[in-house]
Amino acid sequence: MSIAHGLGAAAGTGGDGADHAKGGRRSSRTAYLLLLPGVLWLVVFFVVPLVQLFTVSLQSDFPGYPGYYYRDVNLGNYVDAFVEFWPHMVRSLLFGGLATFFAFVLAYPLAYAMAFKAGRWRNVMLICVVAPFFTSFILRTIAWRQILSDEGPVASTLRTLHLLPGGHITETWVAVVAGLTYNFLPFMVLPIYASLERADPRVIEAGGDLYANGFTTFRTVTLPMSLPGVLAGTLLTFIPAAGDYVNAELLGSDRSTKMVGNVIESQFFRVPGGFDTAAALSFTLMAIILALVFVYVRRFGTEELL
């Protein structure tokens, strides 16, 4: 009787294991089906256009037919584009880096105040940070042009204090960097705020209990806990800022402040037969940004990247 009971129990256990395995397979299939729409979207609207753009960057002029091309593996397009437009590339990386730095300087105290000092005003401050997203990017930049205009309050005040030797702010690199900083500031504030907001305040209080002053506690406890947000905010700010062209177009001048995004836009839409140059510049900028991001993440990255 006991042997039969044992065999029945073993059979029941085997059945439960088989049912569990089938349930696991069904869950796995369900997960893949849920991922399918997103994967298809990325393939159709990201991978395919990226491959098409890459093939355009390698095409060659059709002899005797200006403006016509044939598919080729012409790596000289990359060399020619970089040699001709390397100042714009350097300028884009410099402006993007400056905008990221100034955004961090402005965003960290704001995020810190929202996380630890705002109290019942926290939601109001959060709404103020997010509110610019409800206005068009171009309209915000045009408004910034009005603020920095020669008759605006900023330029007038600086002229009164004799701090504006050139007489104007617009059409200078200062205006472009200021516009980039303003437009991408929320991308820096929100990740840092998210990191600080979920930090355990007891850990910060422990620094004071161990006789550390405020600055030491911030340097050794608060700042390290916020590094995932700083890393995410830096990437979210620098990548679009380096590739932006709206701020340089509306706030800068024709030559001295143009970024590589302006060159790409011009080659695509204004210069006849400039598709290959624009595509080559796009991939060159993408490669440089990816390399910088890789180095940055390896140097300052954490396992808790938001």
Describe the protein's architecture and organization.
This protein has 306 residues and is mainly alpha-helical. The chain is 75% helix and 1% strand. It contains eleven helices and two strands, in the order αββαααααααααα. It has helices at residues 2-57, 76-117, 122-130, 137-147, 153-160, 173-197, 201-209, 214-242, 246-251, 260-269, 275-300; strands spanning 60-61, 69-70. It has a two-stranded antiparallel sheet with strand order 1-2. β1 (60-61) and β2 form a beta hairpin. α1 (2-57) crosses α11, α2 (76-117) crosses α11 (275-300) and α8 (214-242) runs antiparallel to α11. The longest helix is centred in the N-terminal third of the chain and has 56 residues, at 2-57. The protein is globular. The chain starts with a helix and ends in a 6-residue tail after the last helix. The mean pLDDT is 83.
Strand order in the sheet with the most strands: 1-2
Number of strands: 2
Q: Helical element count?
A: 11
Share in helix: over 70%
Main pleated sheet = 2 strands, antiparallel
Give the CA-CA distance, first to last residue: 60 Å
Series of H and E elements:
HEEHHHHHHHHHH
Structural class: mainly alpha
- Rg measurement, Å: 27 Å
In the predicted model, the low-confidence regions spanning at least 5 consecutive residues are: none
Overall body shape: globular
**What portion of the residues fall into strands of 2 or more residues?**
under 5%
